[in-house]
From TrEMBL:
This is DNA-3-methyladenine glycosylase. It comes from the Bacteria. SUPFAM superfamilies: DNA-glycosylase (SSF48150). InterPro entries: Alkylbase_DNA_Glycosylase/TA, DNA_glycosylase.
Length: 295
């Protein structure tokens, strides 16, 4: 199935869809000859291929093809309204000027965003991405269509079928394992979060044991393009925001204070900081990833 869509706004495809990528080895996302991504949809698994020579050209495969094409505009930020956003810092204003095509996209689904977000809790990106890729390969389904080597992420039913040894083999510790199992047991109800949106949607996600403010925000940012969902509790984010906007480190409380003028679009401000190219200084060696498979 194919669709051509012409956005009536500037579109930075890479910036909008980039947050869906989970590391360079992501088997559910590929940036080759456009962008390929896989998804679990209400109609079943699907693969979406997006290119942009001029208009956005998309083709989709599998049972979820029609659903993915219907959701293409929202995925690329058509539902995002940034008209009320005000820049309160020169860095934010300059990035917004240089990157007019930055928008917040919405997948319209919760589970596919929740699974990798839980895996990223309190571990390095290397550990989380390795576990996610392995779970997709072993318990996901091969991507419909010509995307050889890609996989659709495991469904909630598939996650509930994973035994202890397989969790250990994928390098997933007990806390993240329990959170994923608890979420999988009520996954059909959690999809309502994308309909509720905003704080109500995030609050619904936090009812699941093991899902806190950080995880709920990570899901909200991608699932429904939540412009105010800040990832408080992130190991790096407060430091990045502090150095970028103030030239000094901040903790979460300090970041909340610094971002308060941007409410209710604090995540949008953070996104501009991330895309500005600003980096915080490094004062120590990188944290060494752990391998729970060796424990």
């Amino acid at each position: 199935m194919r669709r051509t869509w012409r956005p009536d706004f500037p579109l930075d495809l890479g910036a909008v869809i980039g947050p869906l990528r989970r590391g360079p080895g992501d088997v559910a996302f590929r940036a080759v000859e456009g962008v390929w991504l896989t998804a679990n949809t209400p109609a079943g698994p699907g693969t979406l291929h997006i290119t942009r020579p001029d208009a956005v050209e998309a083709e989709a495969f599998g049972a979820g093809a029609e659903w993915l094409l219907d959701g293409l505009p929202a995925l690329l930020g058509a539902d995002d309204d940034d008209s009320a956003f005000e820049c309160h810092h020169p860095l934010v204003a300059e990035t917004r000027r240089r990157r007019p095509g930055v928008r917040l996209g919405s997948t319209g689904r919760v589970w596919d965003c929740l699974l990798p977000a839980v895996l990223e809790q309190k571990v390095t990106s290397t550990e989380a991405h390795r576990s996610y890729a392995q779970l997709c390969r072993r318990f996901g389904t091969p991507a419909p269509g010509p995307a050889t080597g890609m996989f659709v992420p495991p469904t909630p039913r598939a996650v509930l079928s994973i035994n202890d040894w397989e969790w250990h083999r994928a390098g997933v510790d007990g806390a993240r394992r329990r959170a994923l199992i608890a979420a999988a047991q009520v996954a059909h109800r959690l999809e309502d979060a994308a309909r509720l949106r905003g704080e109500a949607g995030r609050a619904l996600l936090r009812k699941v044991p093991g899902i806190g403010v950080w995880t709920a925000a990570e899901v909200a940012q991608r699932g429904w393009g939540d412009a105010d969902a800040v990832s408080f509790g992130d190991f790096h984010l407060a430091g990045l925001v502090g150095w970028a906007l103030l030239g000094r480190p901040l903790d979460d409380d300090g970041m909340a204070e610094e971002l308060s003028p941007y409410s209710p679009q604090r995540h949008r401000a953070v996104r501009y900081v991330e895309l500005s190219g600003a980096r915080k200084p490094r004062f120590a060696p990188r944290f060494s990833p752990r391998d729970y498979r060796a424990i």
